[in-house]
Amino acid sequence: MNTNFYDEPRDGSASLLHNVVYCSRAAPGVTAQDIDAIIATARRHNAARGITGLLVFGSDIFFQWLEGPKSNVVELMERIHRDTRHNTVVELSVNEEVRERVFPTWDMELVQLDDIREVLQDALRDAQAAVNAKALRQLLQRIDQADLT
Ligand SMILES: Cc1cc2nc3c(=O)[nH]c(=O)nc-3n(C[C@H](O)[C@H](O)[C@H](O)COP(=O)(O)O)c2cc1C
């Protein structure tokens, strides 16, 4: 975690933000070390590109929330689509609006399955923008449907 607030104006007002939420299936043989490597790369790359968000992994399924400047998030999604450590990438929500980040201090936080509902419920309580609340509700619903253990 860090305390950067990236591209947000200093007066605390919101800026144009691109948000992608997707789920995918881990490739056979992906290990805890692979997840650690993904997070380490993500923190390094994302910090330099003003991207924040979270990654959930469980039952061989990934969920990821990405938010940041559009060109950087789109470029990252292209890399993520090509990554052979997972497949069947399904975008659950894509939106762009002037608003504040939901996870402004997380370069990329690995959230445990046991904690994800609480994290999302907290974010939902704080969500100012309707579009954020909608994407958070969609993600919560998908995680419940996936019946992760
Ligand atoms: C589920 C998943 C999530 C990922 N999330 C990120 C991320 O948030 N940021 C990032 O830079 N790379 C992420 N990666 C890794 C990228 O796919 C890619 O390997 C990495 O950006 C390095 O790209 P490069 O080898 O072209 O430099 C993720 C990979 C997977 C499988």
Key traits:
149 residues; alpha+beta; Alpha-Beta Plaits; five-stranded mixed sheet; 4 helices; binds flavin mononucleotide
Q: Explain this structure to me?
A:
The protein has four helices and five strands, in the order βαββαββαα. With 149 residues, the protein is of the alpha+beta class. It is globular. It has a five-stranded mixed beta sheet with strand order 4-1-3-2-5, with helices on both faces. The protein has one domain (15-146): Alpha-Beta Plaits, CATH 3.30.70.100. The two termini are 26 Å apart. Helix content is 42%, strand content 30%. It has helices spanning 32-49, 70-82, 113-126, 130-146; strands at residues 15-26, 52-58, 61-68, 86-99, 109-111. The structure holds flavin mononucleotide. The site of flavin mononucleotide has 16 residues, from helix 1, strand 3 and helix 2.
What is the string of SSEs from the N terminus onward? EHEEHEEHH
Percent range for β-strand residues = 25-35%
Sheet with the most strands, sense and barrel status = 5 strands, mixed
Shape: globular
Condensed summary:
The protein contains four helices and five strands. By secondary structure, it is α+β, with helices and mostly antiparallel strands. A five-stranded mixed sheet has the order 4-1-3-2-5, with helices on both faces.
Record the SSE blueprint.
Layout: E1 15-26, H1 32-49, E2 52-58, E3 61-68, H2 70-82, E4 86-99, E5 109-111, H3 113-126, H4 130-146
Parallel strand pairs: 2-5
Antiparallel strand pairs: 1-3, 1-4, 2-3
Helix pairs in contact: 3-4
Bound molecules: flavin mononucleotide.
